[in-house]
């Protein structure tokens, strides 16, 4: 008789995260010979900057365990980085380095027992992480009319029902999955409410450098004492597979920082040493990284806007993107014809789209929307980022990367969009 594989009820029924699953499924279908357009996983299309790769090569021999909180030199570089962006002084002691900000967010949820507030749509893993830990989450639903931004009033209305309850608010901007962001004034207004109710803000700034206008904004500038800012190499530095994420925690929240470090010491011990040495180069920045980011933003902005316009012509509604590489596409205008084709949920929509066109996207239900919501997330990243960067660098600064350029360098993304439009408009 085999041992009984009973599961902790918190993980029973849990399946691999949708972003990771769609990637593996797309690869499997591709290896079976199907032509797949991978708009599922949100992976940067751009290569890691050369100087960062070079540093990794130079440090490949680094083999010792590093301090749990991270290599001092890296923590100093991360503190300086956030200081430059937030205009708030930080020290190396306030920084924690982990194997991806995803893991650090999980540890934060583990150590802080307050009410978890998640503006929805939200990134795919925040809620499952809560579930794994046996804690509940409160969704604060936002709407396309408000560009998917949490309204200060809405936050206040919620908090004033139980003003003294400890709370943790996750705020992601530029947003995954919606591609929208907050203005500095909007962040200041949210900061006022957060301060009024002593909310801890988990400010997920992993897409901060990919604000299409090139302005890095953070709520930490107006609420430094209550904001934990996260970043990492995965999005703006093209190194998702390197798995390195960072937190900078205000001194006022030292107990949280210490608890995360203690749990980290009992779980992952420390983050890969060579990757940490290489990350110093990325967080120090410099002209080469600035130039890389300028072109990355320019390409993403041109492509995001093109898809937004094209989908709109097919009555698939998105809000114009402001940063990152996602669009949250709403097919509601096609409800009748989709129902007639037997499609009544977001999951069915994505499945049929994948089977019938090879375009892989994710349903809104993975991001906190209802099962019957006909919303979806597109990650517009299926193009050769190295070729696109090299070409964009040769196009004069104020010249738009037009449709002709996009059809040359982001051809498969444009084709995926055209396929999607043709598919939804079928009678
Ligand atoms: N953050 C990315 C996404 O939303 C990638 C992977 C992940 O979810 O960890 O697609």
What is the count of distinct domains?
2
Distance between the termini: 56 Å
Order of helices and strands: HEHHEHEHEHEHEEEHHHEHHEEEHHH
| CATH homolog superfamily of the largest domain | Type I PLP-dependent aspartate aminotransferase-like (Major domain)
Oligomer: single chain
Bound molecules: glutamic acid
The CATH class name of the largest domain reads: Alpha Beta
Overall geometry: globular
| Beta strand % | 5-15%
Task: Give the low-confidence spans.
Answer: none
CATH topology label of the largest domain: Aspartate Aminotransferase, domain 2
Q: What is the count of helical runs?
A: 15
Second CATH tier, the architecture of the largest domain: 3-Layer(aba) Sandwich
Q: Which structural class do you get from the secondary structure elements?
A: alpha/beta
Mean pLDDT: 97
Would you give an account of this structure?
The protein is α/β, with parallel strands linked by helices and 427 residues long. The chain folds into 2 domains: 18-42 and 288-424, Aspartate Aminotransferase, domain 1; 51-285, Type I PLP-dependent aspartate aminotransferase-like (Major domain) (Aspartate Aminotransferase, domain 2). The chain is built from 15 helices and 12 strands. The strands form 3 sheets. The protein has a 7-stranded mixed beta sheet with strand order 2-8-7-6-5-3-4, with helices on both faces. Strands 9-12-11 form a 3-stranded antiparallel beta sheet. It has a two-stranded parallel sheet with strand order 1-10. α5 links the parallel β3 and β4 (137-141). α3 (72-86) packs parallel to α9, α4 (101-111) crosses α8 (254-267) and α6 (152-159) runs parallel beside α7 (184-196). It is globular and about 60 Å long. The chain starts with 17 loop residues before the first helix and ends with a helix. The model has no long low-confidence stretch (mean pLDDT 97). Glutamic acid binds at residues 17, 19, 41-42, 102, 123-125, 176.
């Amino acid at each position: 008789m085999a041992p009984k594989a009973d599961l902790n009820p918190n993980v029973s029924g849990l399946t691999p995260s949708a972003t990771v699953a769609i990637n593996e499924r797309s690869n499997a279908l591709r290896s079976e010979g199907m032509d797949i357009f991978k708009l599922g996983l949100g992976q940067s299309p751009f290569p890691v900057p050369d100087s960062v790769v070079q540093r990794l090569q130079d440090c490949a021999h680094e083999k010792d365990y590093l301090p749990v909180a991270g290599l001092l030199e890296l923590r100093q570089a991360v503190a300086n980085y956030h200081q430059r962006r937030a205009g708030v002084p930080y020290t190396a002691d306030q920084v924690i380095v982990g194997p991806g900000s995803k893991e650090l967010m999980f540890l934060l949820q583990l150590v802080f027992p307050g009410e978890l507030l998640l503006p929805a749509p939200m990134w795919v893993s925040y809620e499952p992480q809560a579930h794994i830990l046996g804690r509940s989450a409160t969704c604060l639903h936002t709407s396309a009319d408000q560009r998917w931004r949490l309204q200060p009033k809405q936050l206040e209305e919620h908090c004033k029902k139980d003003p003294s309850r400890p709370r943790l608010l996750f705020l992601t901007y530029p947003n995954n999955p919606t591609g929208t962001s907050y203005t500095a004034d909007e962040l200041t207004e949210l900061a006022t409410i957060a301060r009024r109710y002593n909310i801890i803000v988990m400010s997920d700034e992993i897409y901060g450098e990919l604000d299409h206008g090139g302005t890095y904004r953070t709520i930490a500038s107006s609420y430094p004492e209550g904001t934990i800012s996260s970043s990492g190499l995965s999005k703006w530095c093209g190194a998702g597979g390197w798995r390195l994420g960072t937190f900078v925690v205000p001194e006022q929240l030292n107990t949280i920082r210490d608890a995360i470090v203690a749990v980290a010491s009992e779980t992952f011990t420390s983050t890969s040493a060579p990757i940490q040495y290489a990350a110093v180069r990325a967080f120090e920045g410099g002209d080469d990284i600035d130039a890389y980011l300028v072109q990355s933003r320019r390409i993403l902005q041109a492509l995001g806007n093109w898809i937004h316009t094209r989908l709109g012509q097919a009555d698939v509604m998105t809000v114009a993107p402001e940063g990152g590489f996602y669009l949250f596409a709403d097919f509601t205008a096609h409800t009748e014809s989709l129902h007639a084709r037997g499609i009544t949920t977001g999951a069915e929509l994505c499945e049929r789209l994948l089977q019938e066109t090879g375009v892989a996207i994710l349903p809104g239900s993975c991001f906190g929307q209802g099962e019957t919501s006909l919303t979806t997330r597109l990650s517009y990243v299926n193009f050769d980022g190295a070729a696109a960067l090299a070409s964009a660098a040769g196009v004069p600064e104020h010249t738009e990367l037009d449709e002709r350029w996009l059809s040359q360098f982001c051809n498969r993304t444009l084709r995926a969009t055209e396929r999607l439009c043709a598919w939804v408009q079928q009678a």
